[in-house]
Amino acid sequence: MVVQLKNSMTSTTVVLALAAVFLTAAAESVAQDRQSVIVVVGAEGAPEYGVQFSEWADRWQSAANAGGADLKVIGRDDVSNDLQELMQQLSETSSIQTSEPLWLVLIGHGTFDSRVAQFNLRGKDLAAGDLAEKLAAAQRPIVVINCSSCSSPFINSLSGPGRVVISATKDGSEIQFSRFGGFLSEAIGGLEADIDRDGQTSVLEAWLFAARRTAEYYESEGRLATEHSLLDDSGDAKGTRFELFQGVRPKDSIKNKSELDGGVAKRWHLVRSELENSLTVEQRLERDRLEDELEQLRERKVKLTEEAYLDELEKLLVPLARIYAAAESPTP
């Protein structure tokens, strides 16, 4: 009887242990299919800046929670080495193999000595080159948003395929306090910046909103603008200014639209709409491919007869409609 009881307890223990393993594996699998957000609050420099940085970080935290993303905020606790903690977090999150982006948001001040651009942390600062080296082996898409002064050299270091890199400045010589990050934090989690009215705000839309609001701030104050944001997602390390866009598309006057950035950024959303969440990874990829072809068709429209254009248009719009119809009415 005692032996049977021991055997029963042993079996129960094994079952519970196996269950714990499977639950842990399942949790890890789910985590791999989620976006990750790392928000870094840099050295404040002065108390008034610290208050603003904290407010911006709070907005990013709310947006990450609304988007169901894994979130880590660095720079708010008593950790003595923020750089070490950041590098550890990047090692863990960038190595996850997933199609879901890792968002790195740098809120604070920056410096540039004509050679090295750095983001100011408590303790040792983060150099653009060191960040590029850390992310070189990333297994997932990356969004890096540097809201600090002197931030554009980060584009030169980090630009690459499958990445969106945003800076608050157009070059390293724009050294004044940057307000761009505040406007961006207002846009990313809401729908005020939803230009195309699809129920979600893309990285591109949030950037356009923030860049325009930044320009309007200096104009309304009668001050010379000391920051001009750039967005790079083509991998050419050049970046694009918001003035080249009308809505979410390049202006008609732009000759080489294919050379502008924004094609990747328009598809990534931290807080997705219900419809977007209903799409599978495969459906999103096919949707993106069709939309790319649709954009190319628009550029070729002037070279086609009306009949030929409408024929090609139908070939793209019908499968697009089928994707969304399938997402809205999934097979039981």
Can you walk through the features of this model?
There is one protein chain. This protein starts with a helix and ends with a helix. The chain is an alpha/beta fold and 332 residues long. The strands form 3 sheets. Strands 2-1-3-7-8-9 form a 6-stranded mixed sheet, sandwiched between helices. It has 10 helices and 11 strands. It folds into 2 domains: 35-272, Rossmann fold (3-Layer(aba) Sandwich), CATH 3.40.50.1460; 279-332. The longest helix is centred in the first third of the chain and has 31 residues, at 2-32.
Provide a compact summary of the structure:
The chain has 332 residues and is of the alpha/beta class.
For this entry, give a set of tags.
332 residues; alpha/beta; Rossmann fold; 2 domains; 6-stranded mixed beta sheet; 3-stranded antiparallel beta sheet; 11 strands; globular; disordered N terminus
β-sheet strand percentage: 5-15%
Q: What would CATH call the class of the largest domain?
A: Alpha Beta
Span between N and C termini? 49 Å
Task: Provide the gyration radius in Å.
Answer: 23 Å
Shape: globular
Class by alpha and beta content? alpha/beta
CATH architecture of the largest domain: 3-Layer(aba) Sandwich
Count, helices: 10
Report the major sheet: 6 strands, mixed
- What is the oligomer described by this structure? single chain
Order of helix and strand elements from N to C terminus: HEHEHEEEEHEHEHHEEEHHH
- Beta strand count: 11
Number of domains: 2
As laid out across the biggest beta sheet, the strand order is 2-1-3-7-8-9
What's the CATH topology label of the largest domain?
A: Rossmann fold
Poorly predicted regions are 1-31
Mean pLDDT: 89
Helix content: 40-55%
